[in-house]
Amino acid sequence: MTRIETVRLRAVLDSRGNKTVEADVLTESGGFGRAAAPSGASTGEYEAIELPVNEAIAAAREHAVPRLDGRVYAGDQREVDDTLRAADGTEDFSEIGANSAVAISMAAAKAGADVLGAPLYQHLGGAFRGENFPIPLGNVVGGGEHAQEATAIQEFLSAPVGAPSVKDAVFANAQVHGEIGSLLEERGTPAAKGDEGAWAPPVSDAEAFEIVEEAVETVSDDVGFDIKFGLDLAAAEVFEDGEYVFGDEVRSTEEQIEYVAGLVDEYDLAYVEDPLDEDAYEAFAELTERVGDQTLICGDDLFVTNTERLQEGIDVDAANSILIKPNQIGTLSDAFDAIELATRNGYETVVSHRSGETEDATIAHLAVATDAPFIKTGTVQGERTAKLNELIRIADEAL
Ligand SMILES: C=C(OP(=O)(O)O)C(=O)O
Ligand SMILES: [Mg+2]
Q1: Where does this protein hold (2R)-2-phosphoglycerate (predicted)?
Q2: pLDDT at 398
Q3: How many Å lie between the centroid of ligand 2 and the Cα of residue 233?
Q4: Any bridge partners for residue 229, and if so which?
Q5: The domain 4-117: what is its CATH number?
Q6: How far apart, in whole angstroms, are the C-alpha atoms of residue 136 and residue 138?
Q7: 252 Rama sector, left if φ>0, alpha if ψ -120 to 50, beta otherwise
Q8: Which of 141, 257, 387, 396 has its CA 20 to 30 A from that of 283?
Q9: Which of 228, 325, 383, 390 is catalytic?
Q10: Is 325 an annotated catalytic residue?
Q11: Binding residue positions for substrate
Q12: Is the CB of residue 41 below 6 angstroms from any atom belonging to ligand 1?
């Protein structure tokens, strides 16, 4: 049986060198699951609360663990996650921390899968899961909150939309990353890397567009399938007193809509995340009305994986896509609910990492389990390749 015997919590390192929560779930029959919480830097105002790690662990040990040990089945994800919510008692996990909650939720899912002898994506997706694989959106150039002295736009994302397989797509993104490294070297532009492993060169956004466009064209020609690119503008981070301040460029809301619509046309962008502020439902709707049939307009800080905020967006046609980050909302069940609501309403889902990550690969399984058309989980660097390589293994049935 999958009844939880013990939940263990500890602090481990994330990719930024910060502490994060890791959970082990052991079941009475010897099942085992381990998972760690990721952590954002450009966090949305409406996200569930990440507590300081020692506080989150102490609070979860006091309030959640006694309700789980010996009482709840790890294989019953809803029961695990309802128990976490009941133990917390707040809307936003401010008592036990969304970092403790999501680590326990994901570890329980893995323990449930272990007892069943099934891969995690199979346990989460069930027998009638579809057979699609997500297209990986790979961060290749970036700045914003993820790197100093780099682009004002947070992420330029390679989007290998024509790749014949997930493996081809993953390798193509890495090739685009490598090509950009060569282009920067040719230009004599020194470039560090940002938190997610993307190049973080000291260039303007306009220059970055030219470099990324050239790289995706070169690699697309080489591999023989279509590669586009997209953006995460993370606009809420630069919205100040009613204006969008991207480096030296300051724009009103109408100007920002005009600017982004122009970029979609000029670069045939496949994907545009958070082009406007996290409260700007109407402005989002205006942009979606203009270019939503040409590209994905995706809400990250806008929706924060929260069904209530997503429903508000659906009501006004604010976007046509949602980013899914389990730690934004606190449990896998909540993330599933957001995916289901999105899918029912014709929104595309993009399962996503955070800028602070660990080797945990749960999101690769979540994307496959839910038939998500996209996954955003970086391009290179160990904590990113952990998810990408897991996707390749899933496709290869090699788990
Ligand atoms: C992954 C992102 O960054 P962070 O985790 O810093 O929110 C994002 O904004 O989509
Ligand atoms: Mg984002």
Answers
A1: 154, 325, 354-355, 376
A2: 87
A3: 7
A4: 158
A5: 3.30.390.10
A6: 6
A7: beta
A8: 141
A9: 325
A10: yes
A11: 146, 155, 273, 300, 352-355, 376
A12: yes
Instruction: Report the nearest-CA residue for atom 9 of ligand 1.
Output: 42
* Averages of pLDDT over each 10 residues, the chain, 399 residues: 94 98 98 98 96 98 98 98 98 98 98 97 93 96 92 97 98 98 97 96 97 98 98 97 95 98 98 98 98 98 98 98 98 98 98 98 98 98 98 94
Pocket test for ligand 1, best of 46, 352, 357, 381 (most atoms within 8 A of CB): 352
Give the closest residue (by CA) to ligand 1 atom 4.
40
Q: Are 208 and 115 in contact (CB under 8 A)?
A: no
Annotated binding site: 146, 154-155, 232, 273, 300, 325, 352-355, 376
**DSSP H stretches of helix in 243-371:** 253-267, 281-291, 307-315, 326-329, 332-344, 362-369
Q: Using the mean position of ligand 2's atoms as its centre, give its distance from the Cα of residue 26 in Å.
A: 34
CA distance 256 to 283: 9
What length is written for the chain?
Answer: 399
For ligand 1, the distance from its centroid to the CA atom of residue 121, given in whole angstroms, is: 23
353 Cα to the center of ligand 1, angstroms = 7
Joined together, the tokens standing for residue 153 give 């736009």
**Environment class of residue 389 by beta-carbon count within 10 Å: exposed (0-12), middle (13-18) or buried (19+)?**
middle
CATH number of the structural domain 135-395: 3.20.20.120
The whole model's pTM is what? 0.98
Task: Say how far apart CA 387 and CA 364 lie, in whole Å.
Answer: 6
Check if 354 has its Cβ closer than 6 Å to any atom of ligand 1. yes
Question: Closest Cα to residue 198, out of 127, 265, 144?
Answer: 144
b/e per residue, 118-141, with b = 16+ CB within 10 A?
Answer: ebbbbbbbeeeeeeebbbbbbbbb
- Of these residues, 22, 50, 196, 357, which one is catalytic? 196
Domain boundaries, given as residue ranges, for the chain: 4-117, 135-395
What's residue 131's pLDDT?
86
C-beta of residue 20 within 8 angstroms of C-beta of residue 99 = yes
Torsional class of 160: left (φ above 0), alpha (ψ -120 to 50), beta (otherwise): beta
